[in-house]
Amino acid sequence: MKKTSSFFAVTLTLLVGLAPLTQPHAHAFELVIGTPKTEPVVTPFCIDFDAAGNLYGVEFENGHRVFKLDPSGNTLTFLGGQKGIIAPKDDNGKGDGGPIADALFSGMHDLAVTKAGQVYLADSWVGRLRHYNPTTGIVTTAAGTGKKGNSGDNGPATQADINQLFACALSPDETKLYLVDISSLRVRYLDLTTNIIHAFAGTGKKGQPQDGTKAVDQPLMNPRAVAVDPNNGTVYIVDRDNHSLLRVTPDGIITTVVNASGKKGASGDNGPAIDATLNGPKHAIVDHQGRVIIADAENHTIRRYDPKTGNIELLAGTPNQKGTLLEKDKVQLNRPHGLRLTRDGQTLYIVDSYNHRILRTDYK
């Protein structure tokens, strides 16, 4: 591995009695949430932070809860949802208009938190974007009717039908919230100033988008998540089944930047990202330098694409090896589904979903 791409040659300290294992240029990982550090979480899928440093997170299957970790890292609170219980099909907005403690959720995959602390939850299985106001404690629906469909563009978001809302991400100025509807094969955005929903990418038909064309006019294969560059608003779309990363520039032009072949694999580190392969990527974020960090979930790794060099590199995990143990020269993850940087960009959090834990490490 080239020295310039070994930033995450890892020492992982999980606070479970294991001695540190060192490597050149090693960074220490720390267990933040999960046993034995905190009480258990169940398949956490994503986290985000408000400006005060509060960590909010969501659980997926067998969990269905929203949780919060205070800035000190000492107090984990389950705010809403009940472990293992999903909202009844005839009441899939369960709890709207009331305290989050009384709300039920259904297969949440992602969330987005504004600087002011407003929390938006991708309540995936019922096709709703839920909004939690920490000041009032009230949860409401911000987008979606609860009826599965693909309608409502250019109208009120609460009157739009959404199939399965898997991911959401804020624009740098927090006026737009991008929404990924995996079953409708589309990305839309909610204008948070008007509460109107708009088309952004995908036509609803399945297919490979043509490079250099308008994203809104092109099909998508299987959009799973979005990430937004905080510097210029460029949007990246994670394509799960095509094992690729797409870029949509501010003028709406779409281009594949990682894995042009669409083939499943774990190849290409330290070389051109366009020739690399991924395996079922599930999430991504963009750092302050415009580099895209990818949760390459089915490879059990975290990788990073640098648009300035066009290259991709391995940051954490061992390709094709899932696990919890630490061994010399490697760290093992188990299908990581979420990533987040602290707002200062100095600390990376990895949601190690099927190890039921959240880790953090210094980032540069």
From TrEMBL:
NHL repeat residue intervals: 217-251
Stretch forming the signal peptide: 1-28
Top-level taxon of the source organism: Bacteria
Domain Teneurin NHL: 165-262
Record InterPro entries: 6-blade_b-propeller_TolB-like, NHL_repeat, TEN_NHL
Pfam families linked: NHL, TEN_NHL
Entry-linked PROSITE patterns: NHL
Keywords linked to the UniProt accession: Repeat, Signal
Entry annotated with the keyword Repeat: yes
Name recorded for this polypeptide: Teneurin NHL domain-containing protein
